[in-house]
Design goal:
Its EC number is 6.1.1.15. Residues 38-464 form the Aminoacyl-transfer RNA synthetases class-II family profile domain. Keywords: Aminoacyl-tRNA synthetase, ATP-binding, Cytoplasm, Ligase, Nucleotide-binding, Protein biosynthesis. The strands form seven sheets. Strands 3, 7, 8, 9, 10, 11, 12, 20 and 23 form a nine-stranded mixed beta sheet that branches. The protein has a seven-stranded antiparallel beta sheet with strand order 16-15-14-13-19-18-17, sandwiched between helices. The chain folds into three domains: 3-71 and 108-237 and 401-452, 2-Layer Sandwich (BirA Bifunctional Protein, domain 2); 252-382, YbaK/aminoacyl-tRNA synthetase-associated domain (YbaK protein); 472-562, 3-Layer(aba) Sandwich (Rossmann fold), CATH 3.40.50.800. The longest helix is centred in the first third of the chain and has 21 residues, at 167-187. It has 18 helices and 30 strands. It is elongated. The chain is of the alpha+beta class. 34% of the residues lie in helices and 29% in strands. Bound molecules: adenosine-5'-triphosphate and magnesium ion (3 copies).
């Protein structure tokens, strides 16, 4: 690849609206460009990285015995009605009409479509177990798309679905997928943890998330040093009713004029928890309360809004109603500023449990979802320790809290979807049996951003080897004046490529400073400079992206560094 023929378009300016370092660097490196909210173009450079991630995912899925297929992204309403998710999925589901007024959705996940395929294709236990996967665009109308491709509306997901005659087979495949995920994230050079996840509305069955560890992550994770216990906070809370009781107790103690309603507030929190709500915002004032519930389980992911008048009349309200009430855009918090809520908490020493912050002021109570809040990282850590520490330290270990970016999720679905869609096979005795299912997702496009969160410095991205757009770039000094430099650089490029190195030639004729800055910004692992001076000395200037100094090496030593 010659960079003069490639579209490399870097910028020096730091984009003002990009909060996360990965978002800023992806924009500065020219990897992505925004088309509209949550919709991004992957430039040729960005796409090279995305494809590298995809390749590792595909290789390991194939190695694990999964088989690739491709489902349509546009799916008919009738199919989604069979499972009830046309309504239940909520606002994240993008609904579309065609010219005949037929309704469709853009797939946010594909349990329905794959189960429809399975009920047509699978008829005998002899065809089981089988694990189908695709690497396909998804659309979720996220309430707050942000951080670039980290939480986009259109994004690339690897989603896999396995089918089984019995639970033992499902459990075996679930373990197989966990092992495959471990290989994938290890090969991608990421620091990650697998944690227990709350299995949510589906109930009972196992679910684990894979998180890339990063301070900017939206999720809070709880680990113990005394055992291999690791969970996201929802799972930690769900596994133990004690924190809930403790929080309710704390809430009752709050001494404010609205004391009388405290128990009812506590009861509402309990309702929220039973519904596996991920985040709750309760905004109170002048006898009126607004409760926003955001479900966080794998299958629902919707925002449910409840309006509570004087806490007596509990009913679901539309987003528009809430927006009207709050006089603002619908969202978790409406006008409640998380920093302000925290200040309230600090002032009043009220309890916070896991992903809830409970606060109070003159006008009433505030419960702010903190699971999403980078702003809240510090106080939240303290709060979680208060709530879960005592319980988890029973294994003798120290409780650690970290923040994570969810990059993968494995799930034992059981028979829920197969039952709804009547996906059966004949068992050994010729009896029709509903199949058990597992589902396994990886956020392929999110991984690109997550990797940058973990691997960068002031100069730019430091790609893990498996993800770099090119492993090595050969930079030419003064190519226009110096044909010998051009010839030597081209020969070296050919040699690297022959040795199997994914290499490119920077023949753009830029000044060295600008050329090197670009290579650092876009995170090339190995930079080689071919110059007149080097050629005279029989050496190449080599610098690893992660090294602070360049060194002059002869060709043998150079190739040994790279190949
Ligand atoms: P999150 O909790 O971040 O909203 P999720 O639990 O809703 O994610 P899953 O339904 O488990 O997501 O989907 C599988 C994977 O798809 C996730 O683990 C994540 O890596 C990725 N993913 C989900 N939503 C997005 C998004 N809006 N943008 C980019 N990747 C996403
Ligand atoms: Mg999640
Ligand atoms: Mg998930
Ligand atoms: Mg989600």
């Amino acid at each position: 690849m010659r960079l003069s023929r490639f579209h490399l378009h870097t910028t020096k300016e730091t984009p003002a609206d990009a909060e996360l370092v990965s978002h800023r660097l992806m924009l500065r490196a020219g990897m992505i460009r925004k088309l509209a909210s949550g919709l991004y173009t992957w430039s040729p450079l960005g796409l090279r990285v995305l494809r590298k991630v995809e390749a590792v995912v595909r290789e390991e899925m194939d190695r694990a015995g999964a088989v690739e297929l491709q489902l349509p992204t546009i799916q008919p309403k009738e199919l989604w009605e069979e499972t009830g998710r046309w309504e239940k999925f909520g606002g994240q589901l993008l609904k579309i009409k065609d010219r005949k007024e037929q309704e469709y959705c853009y797939s946010p996940t594909a349990e329905e479509a794959i189960t429809d395929f399975a009920r047509q294709e699978l008829s005998s236990y002899k065809q089981l177990p089988v694990n189908f996967y695709q690497i396909q665009t998804k659309f979720r109308d996220e309430i707050r798309p942000r951080f670039g491709v980290m939480r986009a509306r259109e994004f690339l997901m690897k989603d896999a679905y396995s089918f089984h005659l019995d639970d033992a087979s499902l459990v075996a495949e679930y373990e197989n997928m966990k092992a495959a995920y471990t290989r994938i994230f290890t090969r991608l050079g990421l620091e990650f943890r697998a944690v227990q996840a709350d299995s949510g509305a589906i109930g009972g069955d196992a679910s684990q998330e894979f998180h890339v560890i990063a301070d900017s992550g939206e999720d809070a994770l709880v680990f113990s040093t005394g055992s291999d216990y690791a969970a996201n906070v929802e799972a930690a809370i769900a596994a133990d009713p004690a924190p809930r009781a403790a929080a309710s107790e704390q809430l009752r103690k709050i001494d404010t004029p609205t004391q009388k309603t405290c128990e009812e507030v506590a009861a509402l929190i309990d309702i929220a928890l039973q519904r596996t709500v991920k985040s709750v915002a309760l905004i109170a004032g002048e006898g009126q309360f607004v409760l926003a519930l955001v479900r966080g389980d794998h299958e629902v992911n919707e925002i449910k809004l409840a309006k509570v008048e004087g806490l007596a009349d509990y009913r679901m309200a539309s987003e528009a109603e809430i927006a009207e009430y709050l006089g603002s855009e619908p969202g978790f918090l409406g006008p409640l500023n998380p920093r302000k809520a925290l200040r309230v908490i600090a002032d009043r020493e009220v309890a916070a449990m896991a992903d809830f912050v409970v606060g109070a002021n003159e006008t009433g109570f505030h419960i702010a979802g903190v699971n999403w809040g980078r702003d809240l990282a510090e106080p939240e850590v303290a709060d979680i320790r208060n709530v879960v520490a005592g319980d988890r330290a029973r294994d003798g270990g120290e409780l650690k809290i970290a923040r994570g970016i969810e990059v993968g999720h494995v799930f034992q679905l059981g028979r829920k979807y197969a039952q709804a869609l009547k996906a059966t096979v004949l068992d050994v005795n010729g009896k029709a049996t509903v199949m058990a299912m597992g589902c396994y997702g990886i956020g392929v496009s999110r991984i690109v951003a997550a990797a940058i969160e973990q691997n960068h410095d002031e100069a730019g991205i430091i790609w893990p080897a498996a993800m770099a757009p090119w492993q090595a770039v050969v930079c030419m000094i003064n190519p226009k004046q110096d044909p010998a430099v051009v010839a030597a650089a081209e020969a070296l490029l050919a040699e690297l490529q022959a040795a199997g190195v994914d290499a490119a030639l920077d023949d753009r004729g830029l000044r060295p400073g600008a050329m090197f800055a670009d290579m650092e910004l876009i995170g090339i692992p190995h930079r080689i400079v071919v110059s007149e001076r080097g050629l005279a000395a029989g050496t190449y200037e080599y610098r690893a992206r992660s090294a602070s100094e360049a060194e002059n090496l002869d060709k043998t030593a150079l190739l040994a560094k790279i190949a």
